[in-house]
């Protein structure tokens, strides 16, 4: 069960090769702010984005997509309807799907809605520490939203949440943590510039769905996605003069990052 | 009727000069993924974008716009209402309009909706081979959606579709083809990076509307738009390290591409 | 009351430092075309964007946000409902808010809607000359929309509008003008490339909200926002090959522009 950093690096490199070989179809129901950046991140890493997010289409499409992302950043009414349709269809069809509960906590529409989606047992839930604690709610520790925004502080909640959903939970921060309730892997890559580009976190959710589409084990897929994504951020930061040029370099780097970069840069533990 | 590559090059160069001189107002009802890229492509090539896409405004605006794009990438309910309004108003007012039937085929909302718009006789229909075949449906050959995604394989359907609508049909692919039912022109420009940027095809639909706004003959306008757009892609690819830097370089190139570039690079037949 | 260019430069530099120190939370209900660019502009200048724009969330959030932008570029029905909610909540809670009446004039949905928002007395109204004249309508001079699109031609209307709302009015153009009904400051910075990137004006509205969030006097905040923004545009233009590379350089420049740049470049009068 427990694997060495070398094992994780190998499985990450293999997963990236499969994404590029298979070009998995990734359906995204995501927020209006980051939808363009997300599609470009998927295209560059080797996946095929499809932003099919209207009711009556979202459900059927989720049964043929390789992976699905549901991101709650700007959850308009018609999109929420499509999200429920897609999540239910994915759950039934066995399509791996990622829930990104953006800004869930006290906002009164998305918070109960996120709980409803959580109960459909997402393959992966991805968020910062506060969002993970909020999406867990009473069901996984009873702490609700609190001021903790430290990855390690959220890790207990994340483990319980993963045990409840039977899926994977990824907590973003300076060091990212991924857990399936038992195993925990930390990835110490990334760059602060990724937090200065809108969608820096949101597009990662889509990339997780791409990796989950081509990988048997969702935990391995999630670790691989975080590692590839954050190593690409470091490569891009070296070629950037600020967040605007970083955004373009990062999309470039998602396409060019390879096994040698991962071997040289990945800090997995 | 039949024109030489030299004639086509001349009319393309003249059309580009008119776009830059007249800055035609191009109304776009397009998908949320590419709307920013599309507006920037229009601005750079010299047109004036206006994304007026709410009901009660879309119709009146279509009567004063120089050209109109309707793109079905993310067809939410309110936008579909505005699209019908705009297409009807454009048809009545004589405003040239472009239909881009993104992902039409088996998706159950957009497919019948695309057929309804097709029956309003768009000035130009633009899509890849599968989309053109799907939008033609039974009305132009009875083949419906099939697995063909080869430009030449779709060309018969495209010619029939153009004859039915009385407009122009453009089929995207490694070599693009434009037909008005009789004439066929092939444009062998472009770069694979254009397929790695979301909106690479969608923004072309908007540029076609800009060229149609300032050109008497829609067939000539469509050939010119494809040629300028795909030559700009080749210029940009030379200055790019990947799809992120390509997207920025391509917007730059749409602004700088000129008669000499077209003469040196255009491969029209 | 009247201040020298040196005073204005000092207060601008101080306001920028406060934005970077405080990272004010700026809520944006803006159009789909520019929402990504706007969020990236806010992040780069040092603010924290939050595009909370669904009904039932927009109102409560406006009471905790540091500043609010309402931009009418693509005013879909559900977003209009959220805009009214947010503007009313901001007005009641004392959250400074900016109204950007994009393309208001003859369009039949947004024009009366803009008048309704105007009557809620925005802290700042920002637009080009035609938009300012249109939003003023009969209430501030009775001229309605006319063909004037010259900043100086709109200045009388802008002063009256500011007196009516008790707020600030900023008129965009080659030389920008800011007035609170009595004081008038002109800022002669910027670059034509800013007009070739979609959202070049819209994102300024969001930056105004960020500056207003950390500055006691909205007039000072607005002058500071325009100055920082347009000086950053000049810095970026020097490093750009066209509008695509300019967009990235401009986001970079919003993050790097500092006191020395402002002292060297700002043309305030």
Textual characterization of the structure:
Chains A, B, C: Its EC number is 2.7.1.50. Chains A, B, C: It catalyses: 5-(2-hydroxyethyl)-4-methylthiazole + ATP = 4-methyl-5-(2-phosphooxyethyl)-thiazole + ADP + H(+). Chains A, B, C: Pathway: Cofactor biosynthesis; thiamine diphosphate biosynthesis; 4-methyl-5-(2-phosphoethyl)-thiazole from 5-(2-hydroxyethyl)-4-methylthiazole: step 1/1. Chains A, B, C: It holds the Pfam family HK. The structure is a homotrimer of 269-residue chains. The first copy, chain A, has 269 residues and is an alpha/beta fold. In chain A, 51% of the residues lie in helices and 13% in strands. The first copy, chain A, contains eleven helices and eight strands. The first copy, chain A, has an eight-stranded mixed beta sheet, with helices on both faces. In chain A, helix 2 runs parallel beside helix 8 (202-213).
Beta-strand content of chain A? 5-15%
Q: Which segments of chain A are poorly predicted (pLDDT under 50) over 5 or more consecutive residues?
A: 139-148
Overall tally of structural domains of chain A: 1
CATH topology name of chain A, in short, is UDP-N-acetylmuramoyl-L-alanine:D-glutamate ligase
Q: What is the CATH first-level class name of chain A?
A: Alpha Beta
Order of helices and strands of chain A: HEHEHEHEHEHHEEEHHHH
* Principal-axis shape of chain A: globular
Helix fraction of chain A by DSSP (H/I, runs of at least 4): 40-55%
Total count of helical runs of at least 4 residues of chain A:
11
Biggest interface in this structure? A-B, 29 and 28 residues
Instruction: Report the radius of gyration of chain A as a whole number of Å.
Output: 17 Å
CATH architecture tag of chain A: 3-Layer(aba) Sandwich
């Amino acid at each position: 069960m427990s694997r060495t950093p070398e094992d994780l690096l190998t499985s990450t490199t293999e997963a990236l090769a499969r994404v590029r070989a298979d070009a998995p179809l990734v359906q995204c129901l995501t927020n209006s702010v980051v939808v363009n950046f997300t599609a470009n991140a998927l295209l560059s890493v080797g996946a095929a984005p499809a932003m099919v997010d209207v009711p009556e289409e979202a459900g059927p499409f989720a049964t043929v997509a390789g992976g699905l992302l549901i991101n709650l950043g700007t959850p308009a009414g018609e999109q929420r309807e499509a999200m429920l349709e897609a999540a239910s269809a994915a759950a039934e069809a066995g399509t791996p799907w990622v829930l990104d509960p953006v800004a869930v906590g006290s906002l009164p529409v998305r918070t109960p809605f996120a709980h409803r989606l959580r109960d459909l047992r997402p393959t992966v839930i991805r968020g910062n520490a506060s969002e993970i604690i909020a999406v867990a709610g009473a069901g996984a520790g009873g702490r609700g939203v609190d001021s903790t925004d430290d990855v390690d502080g959220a890790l207990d909640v994340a483990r319980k949440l993963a045990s409840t959903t039977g899926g994977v939970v990824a907590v973003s921060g300076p060091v990212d943590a991924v857990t399936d309730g038992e195993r925990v892997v930390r990835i110490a890559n990334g760059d602060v510039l990724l937090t200065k580009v809108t969608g820096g976190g949101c597009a990662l959710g889509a990339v997780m769905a791409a990796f989950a589409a081509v990988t048997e084990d969702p935990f391995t897929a999630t670790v691989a996605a975080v590692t590839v994504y954050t190593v690409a951020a470091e490569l891009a930061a070296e070629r950037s003069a600020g967040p605007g040029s970083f955004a373009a370099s990062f999309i470039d780097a998602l396409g060019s990052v390879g096994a040698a970069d991962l071997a040289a840069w990945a800090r997995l533990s």
